[in-house]
Write a structure and sequence with these properties.
Length: about 230
C-alpha cells in the first residue's frame, strides 16, 4: 500500500542518515572540511554503483496513486503532480522553519551548527544533534526523490539535481533559512526560463554565472549575515 510504502521510505531514509553520520562522519570530527566533502562524494559514487549492480543503469517509471493530470487556470495549464510536489515542499519548508525557530531541539541544532565548540561547552549533545540533522536531511531527500522519480524517471541520474543545492544556498545566504528557500526558487526559475527560451544546455551557465557574481561581490549571500572579525 502506498501510504505504508511512504512511511517505510521515510523511516529507512532517517535510519540511513543516522548510520552514515555514526559510521562515516563522526570519526572525522575535528578534521578539515575537505575530508568530509571528499568522503561524501566517495559515498555517492559507491551508492550509485551499488544501485546499478542490483537494479541496472536504466531508468524506470515510478507509478504512484498521485494524480498526473492537469487543469487550466486563466489559460495556463497546471500539472496536478507538480502542484502537489510544490505544496509538499512548501509544507516541509514551513514546518522545518518553525521547528528551527520555535522548538528547543531546533534551537539546539542551530546553536550546534553555528559553533560546535560553544555548543559542547554549553552541555549540548553535539553528536545527537548531528545525527538528527543527517536524519532530517535524508528524509527530505527521500521525499524529494519520491516526486522526482515520478516527474522524471527513477534512476541514479536524479542525484544530479543535488548539485543545484549549492548555488541555491550560496545565493540565498548560508546562515539564512528563508534566504536558502528564496535562493532555491530563484535557481528553479532561472533553470526553467533558460531551458525554455535559450537552450536546455544554457541552464547551467545561467545558474552558475549569478553564483560567481555573488561569491565575488557578496559572498555571504543575498540574505545572509556578513561576518566581521576583530583584529
Amino acid at each position: 500500500p502506498f501510504p505504508l510504502a511512504v512511511a517505510f521510505i521515510i523511516g529507512a531514509a532517517a535510519l540511513m542518515g543516522v548510520l552514515i553520520q555514526i559510521i562515516l562522519i563522526q570519526p572525522l570530527s575535528g578534521r578539515p572540511m575537505l575530508s568530509v566533502i571528499m568522503l561524501t562524494l566517495a559515498l555517492s559514487i559507491v551508492l550509485r554503483a551499488v544501485i546499478e549492480i542490483f537494479y541496472g543503469p536504466q531508468g524506470r517509471t515510478l507509478t504512484t496513486p498521485l494524480p498526473t493530470g492537469s487543469f487550466l487556470v486563466g489559460g495556463v495549464r497546471v500539472s496536478q503532480l507538480h502542484l502537489i510536489a510544490a505544496l509538499v515542499s512548501w509544507a516541509c519548508m514551513a514546518g522545518f522553519g518553525a521547528f528551527f525557530k520555535f522548538t528547543s531541539v531546533g534551537l539546539l541544532m542551530r546553536a550546534t551548527a553555528n559553533s560546535h565548540e560553544a555548543a559542547l561547552v554549553s552541555g549540548i549533545n553535539v553528536n545527537r544533534m548531528n545525527r538528527l540533522a543527517w536524519a532530517i536531511g535524508a528524509v527530505l531527500a527521500a521525499i524529494g526523490g519520491l516526486f522526482l522519480g515520478q516527474l522524471q524517471l527513477a534512476s541514479v541520474e536524479l542525484e544530479n539535481i543535488g548539485l543545484l543545492a549549492l548555488p541555491a544556498v550560496v545565493i540565498g545566504g548560508l546562515q539564512s533559512i528563508p534566504g536558502a528557500i528564496i535562493g532555491g526558487l530563484l535557481v528553479g526559475l532561472i533553470e526553467q526560463l533558460a531551458s525554455s527560451y535559450i537552450s536546455p544546455k544554457a541552464s547551467d551557465i545561467m545558474i552558475y554565472a549569478p553564483l560567481l557574481l555573488i561569491l565575488m561581490f557578496r559572498p555571504w549571500g543575498l540574505f545572509g549575515q556578513r561576518e566581521l572579525g576583530r583584529v
